[in-house]
Amino acid sequence: MKALMFGWEFPPHILGGLGTASYGLTKGMADCGDMDITFVIPKPWGDEEKGFARIIGANTTPIAWRDVNSEYVQSRIGNVMDPQTYYDLRNHIYSDFNYMNTNDLGCIEFSGRYPDNLVEEINNYSIVAGVIARTIPCDVIHSHDWLTYPAGIHAKQVTGKPLVIHVHATDFDRSRGNVNPTVFNIEKDGMNNADHIITVSNLTRRTVIEKYGISPDKVTTVHNAVEPLSQELLNVTVPPKHDKVVTFLGRITMQKGPEYFVEAAAQVLSKVRGVQFVMAGGGDMMEKMIRLAARRGISDRFHFAGFLRGKEVYEMLKASDVYIMPSVSEPFGISPLEAMQMGVPSIISKQSGCAEILNNVIKVDYWDTNAIADAIYSIIKYPAMYKELREKGLEEVNQIVWKKAGAKVIDIYKKVINR
Amino acid sequence: MKAICFYFQIHQPFRLKNYRFFDIGNDHYYYDDFANDEIITRIAQRSYLPANEMLLDMIKQYGKKFKVAFSISGTALEQLEVYVPEFIESMKELADTGCVEFLSETYAHSLSSLEDPEEFVAQVKDHDTKIYQLFGKHPKVFRNTELIYDDDISAMVQAMGFKGVITEGAKHILGWKSPNYLYSSPVAPKLKLLLKNPKLSDDISFRFSNPDWASYPLTADKYIDWIAALPEEEQLVNLFMNYETFGEMQPRESGIFEFMKALPRFAAERGIEFLTPSEVIAKMKPVGEMPVMHPISWADEARDTSAWLGNTLQQEAVKKLYSIGERVRLCQDRRIKQDWYYLQASDHFFYMCTKHSADGVVHSNYSPYDSPYTAFTNYMNVLSDFMIRVHDQYPESIDNEELNALLLTIRNQSNEITQLHREVELLRNNIVKDTTGDFPVDEPKVKKVAKKEDKKTVKKSTKKATAKKAATKK
Q: A231-397 belongs to which homologous superfamily?
């Protein structure tokens, strides 16, 4: 079965959970066998893993004819794409886009991030999708998150193949209800045009049904999973420490509920010393959180570690005794699973999608700072609690593999193709 | 002649309130009075009281032919005394009929038999006292918490002078053997074992009102037929269940009460009698020994102790609790003693079970907590406070042996002092009685001392009086 996927992020260059999830799912589907997957991203760097899917960059797909020779193409984009693919794509330019801002290869530049002119970049991505859909044969089209819905719709119109969209998050999660109308319209348009919708949790499924008015039989939940960690990451070493460490890892934004973590920390510190609290990540609420920690008088024990990348994340987790995710609304939330893989007991909010599939974690209401504080205290004070959560959690998370999720997605493909 | 032996368990723990880590060291009251009151009152109204009434009716109707045995934990008795005193009255009435036997168990429905032998013996004695106070009888047959039993326990139980033990007819210890005989313990040969018939007991307590069950609806006629159809040599059917079976687990409208009331009539027709455990032990001879190497119980699918000690959380909590057992027994504080008992109830550990599937459902049904981890956190917070209180009694730096020695010296000295006092008193009396004049008594001296003291007090009071006068003058 041939699938054409549109994504925005792909490891190792990721900004959030979307890239990790897209990658894991694609790999899981490839492991099920008999899948030919083409994955389109705005801007490949050349160091992506290519074993299980063909990666095409939107910024290396020509939309305007340029007469360039093979050596030149090879020297310009050889590290991310085969020149032959470039020529195939060039043969399928469907309109004259010379009025657009294109480069020497006839391609549009993409940032591959979340710039201020995001909506323009999304439109450009959709234009490029038209070329790709005409070139690459496929049985089904799969769009990851709202940024790629317009591209998916365009590809569907060009090829007439069924469109599956994958909702990793909705704007209701990101904004705590203050929805951006532009984003909402793109999301709603994607859902209306999709033949089937995959959500990462029942929580998100309900949002899609209730807030976007989609028929329930069109929406299926496929929970995310995690990639097994490499031995290298599992063996990272950290300097010995004297204090217990409680860690929050993620964007410091309204959605993640950082203020509840600070309040719980203040409660715990009023009873016990010898505990360090770490808030790693960046975001628009960071300064507010620094001020809040100062106001509670716990700044000496509450640290802001900034944005962590790659191995740093695992070093931080390795040094942690408790991981906490008090998200107000979390479509899935893959980070507690990573913490569990590193053997860190986790506290998660009942309002996060991963709470639907995890048993060996402590689940609390995000607003219940008393319960959060109690849970933290219990894990750092009672060794049995730490041990039980650590061991049972590890056992549990090792059962949550992408291959199972991949098989579910393939079933959905079969359903929409045979309809 | 075949015999049915009924035994009912009544137990309720003192459930803990939501106890936060802030409360450690500050708040020494641990119990959720509201929930405890609500639960025991509800169960008593729906089950215990109507069931007692049913038994009374049956005993009145069938005379001495219908008999049952009860095992009521000390914590349940305490709650019933406070919240449902009418139940105690009704139980006394039942006791007076002579058709009811009371069984012995640990006062706190605890796991002490597995963890702390000394505590175990103390609790059994306490329970015996409680039963005697309320119902005027000393139990002769022992039933451990949740039917937990193994060879080591049998030795302890025999040493306490019991004639028999009630336990589970667990498949893995029975093998090809039938539970419908009397057995004995290999390490304590005088101790007889009564094994629960799991199938016939659960037919009543779990399956009775289940319409998906092949034998539904169960009638007294059919049930007694099953028992009568057992092989001729199998003379004993032990039906052990929770007393909540009547009215709570099997609701009143399922006809469970009528089912019970009809049993003796059909039993009499087929020549089956009812016996209490003591009578069974007196009448029947054991057919052989039943070795039990590892503890068994009547809980969960595994019928072992994993319902309370299966995971790290439970093991840690139990270990921490019993680590201070010796110290608590040295304490004299009554509230500490009381909390010590309440915290030992096996239920607290039952709530911490992390098993999934069917067993997990049973655990979470009974648990007041939403997860085993919350149960553990709450219990450990309470236990931390309790341990602080225990350590406050005597300095932690002194080890138990030394402390014990010191306490013994103090106790001995105080005994000695009282003894000497008595001797002095005695001698004094002898002196006063001596009229021969051979031993002149220095009585005036004693009087003088007394007078002196008198004077002193007089002086003091006059001083006070003058002071008062001065005050009024001002």
A: Glycogen Phosphorylase B; (3.40.50.2000)
